[in-house]
């Protein structure tokens, strides 16, 4: 019975997970030029630099001091990332 309680607690904690990513993780884990669907929704804070991405079929240019909501139900493709970006992603489960 303790195992069942632990599994339920682990599932609950997974549902409540919030993760913060920086530009380092963006460069390492998000491919440029390839469509992807995020596993979690996120809030993107772009402090410095520029990102050009495709959301579904729309091309969006994001400039410094911008906030963007990333929906896990949409498909995205990073087209261009400036080398001097400062970015934070706050990923969360809906």
Describe the structure.
The structure is a single chain. With 94 residues, the protein is α+β, with helices and mostly antiparallel strands. The chain has one domain (18-92): Jelly Rolls, CATH 2.60.120. 22% of the residues lie in helices and 46% in strands. The protein is built from 2 helices and 7 strands; from the N terminus they run H-E-H-E-E-E-E-E-E. The protein has a 4-stranded antiparallel β-sheet with strand order 1-7-2-5. A 3-stranded antiparallel β-sheet has the order 4-3-6, with no helix packed on it. The relative contact order is 0.30. Residues 1-8 have low confidence and may be disordered.
Q: Please, how many helices?
A: 2
Oligomer: single chain
Number of strands: 7
The helix content is 10-25%
Share in β-strands: over 45%
| CATH fold-level name | Jelly Rolls
Q: Could you give me the name of the CATH homologous superfamily?
A: Jelly Rolls
Structural class: alpha+beta
Measured between the Cα atoms of the first and last residue, the distance is 29 Å
The figure for the number of domains is 1
Radius of gyration: 16 Å
For the biggest sheet, the summary is:
4 strands, antiparallel
Q: What is the 3D shape?
A: globular
Which CATH architecture is right?
Sandwich
CATH class value: Mainly Beta
Strand order of the largest sheet: 1-7-2-5
| Low-confidence parts | 1-8
Give, in order, the helices and strands. Answer: HEHEEEEEE
């Amino acid at each position: 019975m303790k195992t069942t309680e632990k599994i339920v607690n682990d599932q609950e904690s997974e549902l409540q997970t919030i993760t913060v990513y920086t530009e380092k993780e963006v460069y390492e884990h998000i491919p440029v030029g390839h469509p992807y669907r995020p596993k979690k929704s996120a809030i993107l804070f772009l402090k410095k630099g520029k990102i050009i991405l495709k959301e579904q079929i729309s091309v969006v240019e994001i400039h410094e001091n911008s906030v963007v909501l990333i929906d896990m139900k949409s498909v995205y493709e990073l087209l261009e990332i400036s080398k001097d970006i400062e970015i934070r992603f706050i990923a969360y489960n809906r």
